[in-house]
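Encode chain A's predicted structure.
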Amino acid sequence: MGTRPEADFGSPQDFRSRFNPHPVAYSLVPSPEHDLATHPENHARFAQLGEELATLPDGDLLPIVAPDSPGEGELEAVHPAAYRAALEQAVAQGPGYIDYAPTYVTTASYAAALRAAAGTLALVEAVVAGKAARAFALVRPPGHHATATRAMGFCLLNNLALAARRAQELGLPRVMIVDFDVHHGNGTQAITEHDPAILYVSTHQQGIYPGSGALADTGQGAGDGSVVNLPLPAGAGDQGFREIAERVIEPLAARFRPNILLVSAGFDAHWRDPLANLQLSCAGFYALARQLMQIADRHCAGRTVFALEGGYDPQALAASVAAVLCAMAGREAPGDPLGPAPYAEPPVGRVLDNAAAIHGL
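Encoded structure for chain A:
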């Protein structure tokens, strides 16, 4: 698919002056019909999310109603027709598992995945149109493990990869993706790693599912150098992520000069999450999001779209999302109801030193 010439959005100040009073657009796609109560990725993940959204000032949020499915031809930018037909057929035979992760489906899961993708794409379009500076797709099922032709890791369609291609189609050719889910976004990397106009940066716990994301894995073909993997030791947390933003993400953005920042926001990196062992706190997520907002303001006129990935402790997920939304709206940090991580952090300096050497930072 070709891209249009890059749109001229003027200076960051000119771009921001066109916003309405709602600085953060969001779409909420809880997908209750896609549910398996005994599975970590279930509808109960969102149990406390609505309550947290209700605590935010009214002027901070602009709801965008997600359409039922992406526009004609938008899925083809990532997922070929044969895969979509096979997925739809597998879903029709549900409930059941379609991947060893395990990834489950119900008979309504394909429609839920379409709506999650559509909600994410609608926010890209809202940001490009100047309806909001920043946006957050609060959607499920998540997406970053899904490859172009395979559902895996609880993911059916790759929401962020679709968003990246849509941004390019709308005239924003250089897309930077930051993925702070605790698991490596193997699907997003596989879809984008040949494209030098998409910079993919992943922070993830080393040695856990899906087993990919090595430091030396830097992209393929013309996209060599467009993938930056940061496999972190168990226990890395707030201080380590501050260093990552300062030493890796900011200099990468300054060199790459993205037109838009997309973020795979996985809150399974919270210290209370049951599936892994990183130690970000709600306050740490706020600080990271604030650093990402500053990077977006400096390098892409503030244009930012977050999309929800993991996060399997409902209270930690809701409080962390609320903290990130406060950062996106330019508010002061809210109180952290869960407090700091209980254990000391290991240093991440060696990982960052190696990444800097590999990528010339």
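The beta strands are 24-29, 61-63, 96-99, 103-105, 134-139, 175-179, 198-205, 227-232, 260-265, 304-308.
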